[in-house]
Amino acid sequence: MTTQITVKVNGVEHFLDVEDDALLLDVLREKVGTTSVREGCGVGACGACTVLSGGMSVSSCLALAVRYDGAELTTAEGLDETDDVVSSFVDCDAAQCGYCIPGFVLMSRELLAENARPSECQITEHLEGNICRCGTYPEIRKAVAAAAERRSPR
């Protein structure tokens, strides 16, 4: 059975016919074309499929698309190089292969929206559900701290 849903992805409204059991990950990749949303593990344990819904992180590999009818979603495609988190990741060399980085960037944006000046421990705790197989964790933590610094008034 299919259902028509409306989702706003990165500010663009999409009217989509989706199977009732379709995962948000697959709908975003196959029907919307957001390739930064990636399947890593398929069980919500790696963070590669992270998107933001209303500013809150969602593991799109576990989420049914029909549940996001009317939602405003942000993927990494919705951010550009002038975004403070994105530019901090670039400046801090916080990517090696880059597969995991969209999820880390979105989780970092969620953290900084909740806590403008997180400690290194708080950064580590917030990102613990994301896996970087290349092991760039020190650079990723440095990038989040740099983004917080950029956002903070002096």
TrEMBL record:
Give all residue intervals belonging to the 2Fe-2S ferredoxin-type domain.
3-79
Q: What CDD domains does UniProt report for this protein, alphabetically?
A: fer2 (cd00207)
For this protein, the record's PROSITE patterns field holds:
2FE2S_FER_1 (PS00197), 2FE2S_FER_2 (PS51085)
One Pfam family, short name: Fer2_2
Name the source's superkingdom.
Bacteria
Q: Which UniProt keywords apply?
A: 2Fe-2S, Iron, Iron-sulfur, Metal-binding, Oxidoreductase
Q: Name one GO molecular function term.
A: metal ion binding
Report the coiled-coil segments: none
Name-wise, this protein is Aerobic-type carbon monoxide dehydrogenase small subunit (CoxS/CutS family)
Organism in which the protein naturally occurs? Actinophytocola algeriensis
Q: Read off the lineage from the record.
A: Bacteria, Bacillati, Actinomycetota, Actinomycetes, Pseudonocardiales
